[in-house]
Amino acid sequence: MSEQIDNLLHEVRRFPPSAEFVANAVAQPEIYAEAKADRLAFWATQARELLHWHKPFTRTLDWSEAPVAKWFDDGELNVAYNCLDRHVLAGNGDRVALYWEGEPGDTATFTYAELTAEVKRAANVLIKHGIESGDRVAIYMPMIPEAVIAMLAIARVGAVHSVVFGGFSADSLRSRIDDAQAKIVVTADGGWRKGKVFPLKPTVDAALAADPTGTGAPSTVEHVLVVKRGDNDVTWKAGRDLWWHEELASVDAEHVALGFPAEHPLFILYTSGTTGRPKGILHTSGGYLTQSAFTHKNVFDLHPESDVYWCTADVGWITGHTYVVYAPLANGATQLLFEGTPDSPHPGRWWELIEKYKVTILYTAPTAIRSFMKLGRQIPEKFDLSSIRVLGSVGEPINPEAWIWYHDVIGGGKAPILDTWWQTETGAIMVAALPGISTLKPGSAQVPIPGIDLEIIDEHGVIQPHNSGGLLVIAEPWPSMLRGIWGDPERFKETYWEKFGAKYFAGDGARYDHDGDVWLLGRVDDVMNVSGHRLSTAEIESSLVSNQMVAESAVVGAADETTGQSVVAFVILKSSHIGDMSEADAVALLRKHVSDQIGAIARPSRIYIVAELPKTRSGKIMRRLLQDVAEGREIGDTQTLTDTTVLQTISAQVRGD
Ligand code: 6R9
Predict the structure, then answer these.
(1) Which of 100, 392, 473, 529 could form a disulfide with 503 if both were Cys (CB 3.0 to 4.6 A apart)?
(2) Which enzyme type, at the first EC level (predicted)?
């Protein structure tokens, strides 16, 4: 059995870096040995080289209050100063920090000097309205420059932001506001999405008017700062509501950034809550910014004076926090910020933007890549993508077929692809190859970044040898690790530290291949047990997608009386293959395909050909809900779905309506 599973992990295609890439690479091979020789000294060097410290630190790590780590804790810095002022002072004030493109095609450009000036004013607005160091401020905004400006202004005054994704409901927003006891909400009247304005301010109004406890107690919010973006009508609560532009015009232009301790809280970010109550993941300043800047520079081979970087994530997710806001700006990069969706007003919009801004580094998610694959290569081929030199992937495993397509069609067969594994909790990238050093292997995230101590262990904590799998843990504290769950230290310990003591349990299954490279196998709650055999949903999905007819697939384990669980697959066919054969024939062919590739044990007992899969707003397939459908159970919490009708259609199909 395990030999059959290996077949998929036995990807034979290899992509060594080109001589040209090696010659100009940021990261040099010695970096691994350097980190290995003295991990703490390595991180201390990075913190000193990559950041400006108002007060230098002398201590690197204090783990005496494990599992709450303290990094560089006798040092002081200002995160916003690191992202802004110091670049201006170094003579790079005229460098573009943000090229912004709105969905309707309107644009704006901010140099580092201009962005610094905006953030100083916004910081003064916060101070004017009583925000002090340690206060919480919620952000509920579209992808506009003011979202970045607000985050940096909050950080600048030592307050703590809690960004709530603009697609979340009033209830979700209110529960996050209450949990963090936010004093201000920064929002916009509305934003643009698929050719229309979607209102945001009314959702904030509804969130604040709600009475979730039934006691009539008001929320903790004193003011709502509103950016004018959608020009949609809004109702106004005098005294509480304030226009962003009026407030910014009313304050002083100068603001001096003070240093805050390295362990000063920077932000709270609630995880998507796929199970239970959302967790407010807490990140602090010095360690977070160090690992963010380090990974961004080395994993993406950043040359800030010449690159144009684009991370497509929304600032409402951790990828947007770390790789849209903090890391690129700390590194003085020039980046693109885009308000819209990939397919509006036409399916080539992303490629048009890459051509227009000559984007050199693109960082996106496999789900996006697979939907582009579904539409066909003729769309990106209409645009000049020759500026692209580095590609990144994040969010879920990238199956080899999608990897190759991304490499060939978007990367022109030359750009290295960095598959980056990390989590909201890890704060920054933990596993990724380094371009210019590593020979790439499609489908594998490969190796921990320098300075990270990763292990794959079994249930008893025994480290696994090459060519076997288990649970992914991080054996030593790392600079950008979460410092806790907001207001719930017990839950923090239970969730991540109870299982393996001093090792952080990530909740992901992983496997070493024959070379010792790491393959991520999906969440362990997505691991199925069929007749006592361990099967990964990711692995079977990868097998299905490797069939030429299949565009996308989701696999779940459904309870089965005889085998414990059985494999149920939901499959989207490529439009070019719909109608090639009857549905029954397609299902039979795909069952055989999986059986041939992985083994009979992995053959799906049921395959449903569907038009769409249920996804969260961050693009993750909601396998838990598909499992409810497959098991004929009542469907669980669908709060985080983009479109609930997708699930209703699939349910009807499964019931045979
Ligand atoms: C950054 C982000 C974290 C979970 C994580 C894992 C999955 C993320 C991945 C990946 C395989 C990758 N994940 N990157 N799985 N390969 N390159 O996505 O954070 O939203 O907290 O999700 O996503 O299962 O545990 P977050």
Answers:
(1) 473
(2) ligase
